[in-house]
Amino acid sequence: MPERTRPTALARTILLLAVLAAATSPGFTARAQDPLAAWNDGPTKQAITQFVRQVTDPSNASSVKPEERVATIDNDGTLWCEKPIYTQVAFVFQRVGALAPMHPEWKTQQPFQAILERDQAAIQKFGAAQLFQLIGATSAGMTEEQFAALAREWLAAAKHPRFGVPYTQLTYPPMVELLAYLRANGFKTYIVTGGEADFVRAFASGSYGVPPEQVMGTSLRTEFQEAGTSGSNLRLPALFFNGDGPGKPANIALHVGRRPILAAGNSDGDIQMLEYNQRDGRPYLNLLVHHDDAVREYAYDTGTEKALTLAAQRKWTVVSMKQDFRRVFASN
Amino acid sequence: MPERTRPTALARTILLLAVLAAATSPGFTARAQDPLAAWNDGPTKQAITQFVRQVTDPSNASSVKPEERVATIDNDGTLWCEKPIYTQVAFVFQRVGALAPMHPEWKTQQPFQAILERDQAAIQKFGAAQLFQLIGATSAGMTEEQFAALAREWLAAAKHPRFGVPYTQLTYPPMVELLAYLRANGFKTYIVTGGEADFVRAFASGSYGVPPEQVMGTSLRTEFQEAGTSGSNLRLPALFFNGDGPGKPANIALHVGRRPILAAGNSDGDIQMLEYNQRDGRPYLNLLVHHDDAVREYAYDTGTEKALTLAAQRKWTVVSMKQDFRRVFASN
Lengths: 332, 332
What we know:
Oligomer: homodimer
Strand order of the largest sheet of chain A: 4-3-2-1-5-6-7
Low-confidence stretches of chain A: 1-7, 22-31
Largest interface: A-B, 36 and 36 residues
């Protein structure tokens, strides 16, 4: 190498720095490492990345300011497995069993009796009223901190009846990736659950990277009780707010104060949230997760018939777990 | 200057970069420009800066992780002037007048009649029930976007009866600075109002730098109404949740899902929030704004007697507007 073209120590350092800068830039990372690697390539993945590019590209006429990039995502059946029963139902059934010795009257009192006798026919008929009666009865009088500790303790120990792993291992990697991908693109990601917000908060931060202040859902009434110079909100055995169905847009208005531009759900209880997201003259993306994979998870349309019909009519993006999810759970 | 010590172009560039780096570092900015310049020096300002240093210094045993740096601040009387009447009350009175021609029945129906006849004795006796009846009656059926537009329109036009300026010019610069100072130190700042959240959201972003998702308060019931493929939450003339007093810690649990470490209020309606913030074995700061400046603002203890007594007993930091506020409004 002729003397005049040999790189000096300074030039080599500058080159090294330039390479390092390129390697750590978002563009390089995106190419080297697909942020949606748990998705199969196809129209669904394309619809997501195309929408995110559209709203984040400042040169695009329909780009959306970061503070308005609100994503609202359902939990049960959208972010984690909801079969054979909702996870919080499994939690509350265990609580009924654990507390039964202190409540002899439950032996002849519904809905407790059905659980203690494992009366599946009666259990299948439970609605929201029974469920929240059970949640209230098994956690009334607790502070928020006590309930959170109890939920975490149960989640650490309980196992799914079919898959034999803790419920928190049954979140869907493609959807967890989607949350992270949206946040990396300036979105604020919210969980809007029909289940109890305080139950989801017990694991949402660790499992989804969503802090408690971005989780909303069904809530119990509470009563503030002073204790010396401090005080706590004690749980009451009464429903404050049903966060399912029309409760979802109401909760988004209450908690966020602006409409989302991306919403994802999986059942008829998510229809109003998707309608709230859908407005002419502005960009939006509606995702409907379809459980069509009996081998890796479950295949069912019950409770989601109306949403599937509307999705076809309104061009919502249907996510096929069978075709679009490269992985359904972290373990596969 | 001898040849060997004359700075080279490279050395001069490095020196310039070092100076620029120092000039833009947080430490330099803090010295050059006091982030709490609208506060007078004294024990109150010192209590605030000392607390923030304590919880943000990672080498301190009682430092607090950024995600747990939650500050919850009352609005009326804490962030802006609440006399002679709450600003939203002035708004709703104007609405009653504007809508009266369409409601001849209001002439003989309370609480409307009292407003139309300017019956101060009757108006003084109004409680939360009357106020929220008025809010509901004058905005029922509106979508969230319609109500926000109406509130902004009124705020842009209305003037304070004594100071003759728009209400949004009657925010307190020391408190607005405090919000920014907390955010610069990794806090998330929330407004926890006894007034209506959606009214405060109409100006909180512009006036306080607090986005709608960090404003909670009293709320009306809503009803989701589908319109074609979309839908909106329509306001109903009924109270959903009273966000004052014990409603403040309940709202914080509902919206944030964790306790604050700094809380600020000015009246008996803030006591439970301050108690919720106060817990042994962890750092916290409770601020109580005391209206003792009849010249620059108002001097009153009515409605704050119990809070002042507790502040003395429990060593809450009382903020004297007269002594601690260098400026009370942006204009002085």
